[in-house]
Specification:
428 residues, alpha+beta, 9-stranded mixed sheet, 21 strands, 24% strand, globular, disordered C terminus
Length: 428
């Protein structure tokens, strides 16, 4: 099903640059006021392939300089291309909020593009038109895949885990650490039997987009336009893109919750919560400082992960554990929150939510600070979803409400690139 193959990556020469200074987070998580720091960190920082320095210039940018920059860096030797195709194994070591050290090991490969209705590469969320138009403009100008889609595959027995770990131990071609303290190791995997094993394993199963829906759908549109202009060509560069593949069930793959903060609607009193949710059990919890909220959730909310459950904290300090006795079964808590809590209790429909009536902090600490600093009236803390939830929903051809999952760690831009042309402009 999932078609993956090795490729000849263009990548930074670690003898010429410090990889820590040139990799960047995915473009859509870089705040406008963070761009300048990445531009200034190193003259070869990969942000130059992703964003304008000033966010206000983005709408009018034609990205024409990106192709020139790519060619110049290749000509100067800052970027090199490997002679033989391979998979690029990346390990990401990090520390969880509870202080546990983990490592996710996955790999970059060339992904054959498939329309969603084929059920092979499956989305888990809806996308917006604006970002796709911007990314298509960039892809046309660059004629290269400069950032990757992040895909999850199902490998409950971790059949590929030892193979990938062995590639890292054989020899690294790059090492870095980002501003969040995540440590990266990069290695090439070229052993023919290992390459064949990966291809056979992925060919037998679908994959789910964890991050990069806009990038994937942009690549699909780019392929449609290329084929319409040039006719069918199975080997055309537009038939594929670069993706990072990771096992959703490996210990280092975290699915973290994205919480909700209601911005302006007044917080219900405890009595109003009970009136609005008569079939739910409601228990008052102690009010704690923001940096203690994670511990409170681990103690009181986490044990209810298999049930409809959440914690509501109002800006006045009232903190309530709200849950149902029956198991969730195939229901998704994010859908229940959208319909029964944001919709019924707060009166917010989908349009209002998309319009900014709700914020989506990626940590309980941030959510707690927002309501204390006037950024909202109520924080709704959730348990994380599970890999089973993700694969079940996408197998049914459905998508989840926006901001349902936070896959961690993120996949940086700058580890590998895939150039569609040689420097003389001829197609590969």
């Amino acid at each position: 099903m999932t078609a993956v193959r090795p490729f000849r990556a263009v990548r930074y020469d670690s003898a010429r640059v410090d990889l820590s200074n040139v990799i960047v987070p995915p473009y859509d998580v870089i705040a406008a006021d963070e761009r300048g720091a990445f531009f200034d960190r190193d003259p070869h920082n990969a942000i130059r392939f992703e964003l304008t320095r000033d966010a206000a210039d983005e709408a009018s940018a034609d990205y024409g300089s990106i192709r020139e920059t790519l060619d110049a860096w290749r000509a100067s030797g800052v970027l090199v291309q490997d002679e033989m195709p391979g998979y690029y194994v990346m390990g990401q070591r990090y520390e969880t909020a509870s202080g546990v050290r983990l490592e996710r090991i996955g790999f970059f490969g060339e992904l054959g593009l498939e329309e969603y209705d084929a059920g092979i590469v499956r989305p888990h969320e809806r996308t917006l038109a604006g970002p796709k138009a911007d990314r298509l403009k960039l892809l046309r100008a660059a004629e290269a895949n400069l950032s990757s889609v992040f895909l999850l595959y199902e490998d409950r027995d971790d059949e590929l885990g030892e193979l990938l770990a062995r590639a890292l131990e054989k020899g690294e071609i790059g090492r870095a650490e980002d501003q969040a303290g995540v440590e990266y190791r990069l290695a090439r995997l070229t052993e023919p039997t290992d390459v064949a094993r990966i291809e056979a394993f992925l060919d037998a199963r679908p994959s789910v987009i964890a991050d990069g829906h806009h990038r994937y759908e942009t690549a699909l549109e780019y392929r449609r336009q290329c084929l319409a202009a040039d006719g069918p060509d199975a080997d055309a560069p537009c038939q594929s893109t670069v993706a990072y593949f990771a096992n959703a069930y490996a210990p280092g793959s975290l699915l973290l919750p994205i919480h909700r903060v209601v911005r302006d609607v007044a917080a219900p009193s405890e009595e109003e919560w009970r009136k609005q949710l008569p079939d739910w059990t409601i228990e008052r919890l102690p009010s704690v400082a923001p940096d203690a909220v994670e511990d409170l959730l681990a103690e009181r909310l986490a044990p209810l992960a298999g049930h409809a459950s959440f914690v509501a904290e109002s800006s006045d300090g009232t903190t309530l554990l709200i849950h149902r006795e029956e198991a969730l079964a195939d229901e998704l808590m994010v859908r229940i929150v959208e319909a029964e809590i944001l919709g019924h209790v707060f009166g917010l429909d989908g349009e209002a939510i998309r319009g900014g009536a709700v914020a989506f902090p990626k940590s309980a600490l941030r959510a707690a600070r927002e309501i204390r600093e006037g950024g909202g009236t109520v924080a709704l803390y959730l348990n994380p979803m599970t890999p089973d939830d993700v694969f079940r929903v996408t197998a049914e051809g459905e998508v989840m409400p926006q901001k349902s999952t936070f896959f961690y760690p993120k996949v940086p831009t700058g580890m590998v690139f895939r150039d569609h042309r040689d420097l003389d402009g001829s197609a590969r």
